[in-house]
## 1
Amino acid sequence: MTALPRNVPASTDLHDVRWLRSSYSTGANNCVETARPRSGPWAGLLAVRDSKATAGPALLFSPESWAGFVATLR
């Protein structure tokens, strides 16, 4: 079994994704954006990037890991 990648050095390497920002975000760009790659080695994972550095790296999470993280925040 191959380990899942944990990050992408440049989020621009994730092609054909739609980055989403929380509806609670303000115009100050102090938030994160998420996307779900549908193809390539990142398919099925959740990508998270800093909204201030849209060409910067993206962290990758399994859907279960992300759901657990969000549940812990609540």
Note: The CA atoms of residues 8 and 58 lie 5 Å apart.
## 2
Amino acid sequence: MQLGLVGLGKMGFNMRERLRAHGHEVIGYDPRPEVTDTPSLEGLAQALTAPRVVWVMVPSGEITRDTIIGLSECLDEGDLVIDGGNSRFTDDAHNAELLASKGVGYIDAGVSGGVWGLENGYGLMVGGAEADVAKAMPIFDALRPEGERADGFVHAGPVGAGHYSKMVHNGIEYGLMQAYAEGYELLEAEDLVQDTHGVLRAWSKGTVVRSWLLDLLVQALAQDPEFSEISGYTEDSGEGRWTVEEAIRHAVPAPVISAALFARFASRQDDSPAMKAVSALRNQFGGHAVKRVTSAETLRAPDPKK
């Protein structure tokens, strides 16, 4: 299948490589000339054979909205746009309406997997019409992990459902990371425990708290045993805030996710070991930049092949 891919950053670049490895033709556009396959959105549209499918993988907010507007001006009736970024679900109805006025379909796709998705596959949560999802299914099947489709892909509902599901996913992620980080700090605080890294590693097989996030925390400690190279300053990228706002709107108690979000706010005032652990985890799974202790320099994303 042929696909246009807008945005070749940390995830988009790896997605292009995974799709090509599965036999799909991917034509990518990115403002950076060293990675792009075509010089412009218009060039991308011209390079694709109708009916076109274009996947947008750029930062949420204004950049995504501007990209959707640009595509609406160069795509034709029968084409399809997939927004795979972390857009707020409230943007999806507007994007879908804009494209529908040109006869272009729209799918919102929540994508999880970070920089490791190239090798492991991506968890996918999509929203949109049945016919549009069916049209893009060969792409989804190539991106998701191997095995049964339902274990890594869901058509969650109409437009907006994919990004809503990913928002809640990321809110849960906040809480899980915070729990591991607080456990790490408590182990570090007790003199009886002489091998914190060893304890966490021993939890990685067989225990009820085993998970990929725990594996990544163990890996981060192996690389920097005292987290001496990074500060605990931890950003939040939006989804945690949106999840808490939705919990308030629906009157759903969400104390763990809320506390994890507020802990990130506190990290900008208090350089605690727990927040160093959260910061290290974000760098491990998503390639998110982290601050060094003694300078504004940031650490690069880990290499999933190592």
Note: The chain has a mean pLDDT of 94.
